[in-house]
Amino acid sequence: MKYLYNIIKIGLVLILALFITAMLHYNAYSSKPIREVEQNILQAADLSTMQAADARTLKRLYGLDKGTYEEFVLYTSTDSMDVKEILLVKTENDSQADAVEQAITKRIEAQRQNFDGYGVEQMKLIGDAETLVKGNYVFFAISPGAESMKKAFLDSLISDNSKKE
């Protein structure tokens, strides 16, 4: 009898774990427009030395094609000796998010190689870069306020998911 209760307990725990996993995965995808997420991030950012970039810059810096992804937002520094960047990509599926994350990793490595040995301030910013994949959104920032931008990004998506419930 004790054996049967243990099997039932284990079964219930597994069902609960599957349910929680399914709910987290479902809620991770956001229908929030990228411009709303962008505005929340930009409120936490200092854009005084940054400018919006186009699809050509996205391709040149990250090797990503605009048409492959649902939407993107990219800000780069106006000074070529500065490493500040903000990238936000809304993907259509998990494999696209993985590809964006790999492109970000390559970009970070390229920037490390570019500034290694003489760009002490830039190297610190690169080391403090923030990257986060949340559902169908990928966030990346190299900036003095990268951590607060990441928090604004998360808050933006969380507020979207709480409206669904």
Question: Topology of this structure?
Answer:
Blueprint: H1 2-28, H2 34-43, E1 50-52, H3 55-62, E2 71-77, E3 85-90, H4 94-115, H5 120-127, E4 130-134, E5 137-142, H6 146-164
Antiparallel strand pairs: 1-2, 2-3, 3-5, 4-5
Helix pairs in contact: 2-6, 4-5
Organism: Diplocloster modestus
Transmembrane segments: 6-26
Protein name: DUF4358 domain-containing protein
The count of strands amounts to: 5
| Major sheet attributes | 5 strands, antiparallel
End-to-end C-alpha gap:
40 Å
Uncertain runs are 160-165
Quaternary state of the chains? single chain
Cα gyration radius (Å): 20 Å
Overall, the morphology is elongated
Tell me what portion of residues adopts beta-strand conformation.
15-25%
Structural class from helices and strands?
alpha+beta
Average of the residue pLDDT scores: 88
List the helices and strands in order. Answer: HHEHEEHHEEH
Strand order, main sheet: write it out: 1-2-3-5-4
- Total domain modules: 2
Tally the helices.
6
What is the structure about, briefly put?
With 165 residues, the protein is of the alpha+beta class. The chain is 57% helix and 16% strand. The protein has helices at residues 2-28, 34-43, 55-62, 94-115, 120-127, 146-164, and strands spanning 50-52, 71-77, 85-90, 130-134, 137-142.
